[in-house]
Design a protein that fits this description.
alpha+beta; 146 residues; 3-stranded antiparallel β-sheet; 4 helices; Alpha-1-antitrypsin, domain 1; 4-stranded antiparallel β-sheet
Length: 146
Amino acid sequence: MTILLPRDRAGADTLRQSLSWPVFQRLLSKLIDTPVDLALPKFKLVGEYKLKRPLSELGASKAFDGGHADFSGITGSRDLVIDDVVHKAVVEVNEEGSEAAGATGVVFVELIAVRGVPLVVDHPFLFFIRNRRTGDVLFAGQVNHL
C-alpha cells in the first residue's frame, strides 16, 4: 500500500485533482526504502458502480440493445440482452492488515525493535494498493473521515 499524505491537512482533494499518472510515477521513482513507525487509522471503503453508461461509451452499446445484442453462443437464441453491469469494491484496513476485494495482505513486524521514521496519518489522505511485482495500481481511494 502506498499512502500519499498531503502536508496541508485539507489538501487531499487538491492532491487528487493534480495527480496524473506521470506525476504519480515520478513520485514513486523518488521513494526510498525506509522503515517507518506507522500510525494509520482503521478504515473501510465500499463502492458500487453502475457501468452500463461507461461501457456503452467505450463501444459496448450493442450488448445493452435488444435489437443488436447477440449472446446466442450462451443461450442458443438471440433473446438475451445485458441490462446493466455493476462493480462493487471493498477495501478494509485494520490491525491485521488490509483486504481488498478478497485479496488479503498480511503485515509482518520484525521481532528486533527497529525505530522507523514516524508517520502519523491523522488527516485525509490518498492510498493505492499496488501489485508488488508489476507496480500496477489495483485499488485507489481517498479517505476523508478519520
